Amino acid sequence: MKSSGSAGETAGYLQHKHLETIRRTTWKNPRKVLQPMESDVFPRSRYEYETTISPASNLSSNSFLCMENRIQNLKPTQDKTECVKEMKTLMWICVLVGNVIRGIGETPIMPLGISYIEDFAQSENSPLYIGILETGKVIGPLIGLLLGSLCSRIYVDSGSVNTDDLTITPTDTRWVGAWWIGFLICAGVNILTSIMFFFLPKTLPKEEREKNADESKNNKVEKYREKSKEEKSVISKDFLPFLKILLCNPVYMLFILLSVIQINEFVIAFTFLPKYMEQHFGKSTAEVVFLIGLHNLIPVCIGYLVGGFIMKKFKITVKKAAYLAFCLWLFQYFLFFCKFVMTCDNFAVAGISTSYEGVQQPLDVENMVLADCNRRCSCLTKTWDPVCGDNGLAYMSACLAGCEKSVGTGIKMVFHNCSCIHSSGNSSAVLGLCDKGRECDSMLQYFLIMTAINSFIFSLSAIPGYMVLLRCIKSEEKSLGVGLHIFCIRLFAGILAPIYFGPLIDRTCVHWGTLKCGEPGACRMYDINSFRRIFLGIPAALRGLCILPALFILLLMRKLQLPGEIDSSETEAVEMRLTEKESEHVEVHRSPDLDNEEELKRML
Predict the structure, then answer these.
(1) Yes or no: domain 7-28+77-171+249-344+438-557 corresponds to CATH 3.20.20.80
(2) Cβ–Cβ contacts within 10 Å for residue 390, how many?
(3) N- or C-end of the chain: fewer Cβ atoms within 10 A?
(4) Full-model pTM
(5) In 10 A of CB 12, how many CB atoms?
(6) How many CB atoms within 10 Å of residue 82?
(7) Is the confidence at residue 347, as pLDDT, over 50?
(8) Where is 598: in which H helix or E strand?
(9) In what order do the strands lie in the sheet with 429-431?
(10) pLDDT by residue (tens digit) across 487-514?
């Protein structure tokens, strides 16, 4: 099938990710009883991330380090009822209205635009034109991903906070980029591009035919289309009959079922791929978004253009297009399983995935974040503020690493005298998780190469497959048919897929963040093996379900006579034979008249 969207839609992923993080995370300060939190000084609208280090303690105090006989306030810092009130917002209304307006704006492009191309372009040219249209629709998300990558590198509150005091980097799961910049840029571009639509003519000219032999046939088709357009003007009269015809069309209904299953898999991959790459390969959101645009959407653009050009160049019929799309899709389906072997290990975090001695442990056991080396430190056991030790092992916080001293401020802070870090050096640690190493970087390269190949083959089969949809319905039914097809995809795939797949991903979480009220927040660390099995296994199962409706479509098309089934060369041969028969028929009927004329000439 095909991908759709715009730069604003792609930036919407970043907004969704960042708003979810803001909603489910907080700045948790163990010394709130002794000193005011940062939120008491700055406006409430600013982002507060979960950490044990506040700017004040960052500069002047080591209270977040290992200290014996310290009294900690482990209870929720706020009343739960007050906390729930803070979470309430009406911004979803703006998002809802914006999506409704966007859906209205897409109508001339999708149902009406594709129907116009299919009706008024030559049959051999329409696949190329639709391929160009689909390519243009992918360029929007591509630009959006590149813009999102740039915005993700900028802190969300840059300009209003001192970024030197930040203790997180873009690679941290608590980082929130400046998602709002992308929406401002996209809004300005949309306003500028909308001006050009006011200069479009009321009617668009029909493409000129190159061959004079087709003029008589095209005139008949034109008359038929004009008649059908007059009938379509009465919507209340024709909507239900056309809908009934479409619902009784087996090829059309099977194609909708096939599209819904395929787009479920596509939505899952596009929505959760950034999170998968962040957790699996240890990359930042900015890096992941850039790599997705480079290795996913560029091959898709090329595939759409090549698919449309092949359909035009070789004048492939509808039946041949169906077989071509099925073979390409089947080949891409088998290549997809190669991704299962491109894996990395979990982040080595003491007390979660690894013991404090550096031995890997099962993730299904209860986390043992306390050990003999940090039991005297009176540390908070739920706060996620990771540090990376010299021994290559990460710890949930500097306190749990047993660190007693810190040097520097912000992200340059270094911790020393860490009793839980057993290394040949000075037992020091730095902020953030440890890198996964060169082997994981190599696996990422293989993963991206396989993703690019799969995206190219997927889009290469999209145009031949889409032509089956357009040619299996009549001309007067195309607008309604394409619109109903898009409606089913958005409803049963675009909306439904994240609803059931998100909770499945949450089941693989091994450590949750903490809200202001002490309740679980956003997931900070996943079980990579379980995540991979769900993220790749369910799409593989969905692709397997596509085989059955695809085979039924191929069987039905062998028995049906579909519009556009005969290519132009076969059509010319048939028309030539019909012309010869008509001329013979005329000669047979006119022969007596010709004989009488010859006799009169002789008599004269």
Answers:
(1) no
(2) 17
(3) C
(4) 0.76
(5) 22
(6) 10
(7) yes
(8) helix 568-603
(9) 394-395, 387-389, 429-431, 414-416, 405-407
(10) 999 899 988 999 999 999 999 998 888 7
